[in-house]
Specification:
alpha/beta, Rossmann fold, two-stranded antiparallel sheet, 5 helices, 7 strands, 17% strand, globular
Length: 163
């Protein structure tokens, strides 16, 4: 284990009738790779309920369960299950970071989500926390759907509004 307590944080995307979205799976698989490579102490999952998850378990719990099936020790898994936005993902993990005396986080998300995360994380997470970022996947503009367009437009509007 590291002398500096480290956590890999995977930000939530979507869980639907057919399971995790491809993007959520890519984020989780990259987070698992980083967790194992960097020998992190914790893996934190995020996400509550909303249009992105209408199941009986929060997205944070579902993601935690996914990592259990991949052999991650239950003691290394932390989750929050309340958030519905990127801003809330970050705010809801703060108590977990503080309670577990985590000093460094590696945030894993998609490339098109990264700008918003880099804008919000330093404002929300504790100022003494060392933050690094890892891209889980690159969204090909050749595959953009109407849904993708509005999803990304919403993200850019949130950045403009500072939320």
């Amino acid at each position: 284990m590291n002398t500096i307590k480290t956590a890999v944080v995977v930000l939530s995307h979507f869980y639907g009738g057919h399971g995790f979205s491809d993007r959520q799976l890519r984020r989780m698989n990259k987070a698992l790779e980083v967790f194992n490579t960097q020998k992190a102490d914790y893996l934190i999952t995020t996400g509550g309920f909303g249009f992105f998850n209408r199941s009986e378990l929060s997205l944070g719990e579902r993601s935690r369960d996914y990592f259990l099936t991949k052999g991650v020790n239950e003691k290394a898994l932390l989750f929050e299950g309340k958030s519905t936005t990127t801003k809330e993902n970050l705010a809801e993990i703060v108590p977990l970071l503080v309670a577990n005396k985590i000093q460094k986080v590696v945030i894993v998300t998609s490339v098109d989500h990264m700008l918003r995360v880099k804008f919000l994380a330093p404002k929300i997470l504790p100022p003494t926390l060392e933050i690094s970022y890892v891209v889980s996947d690159y969204h090909s503009t050749l595959k953009v759907t109407v849904w993708d367009f509005f999803w990304h437009l919403g993200g850019w509007i949130k950045i403009g509004l500072g939320i």
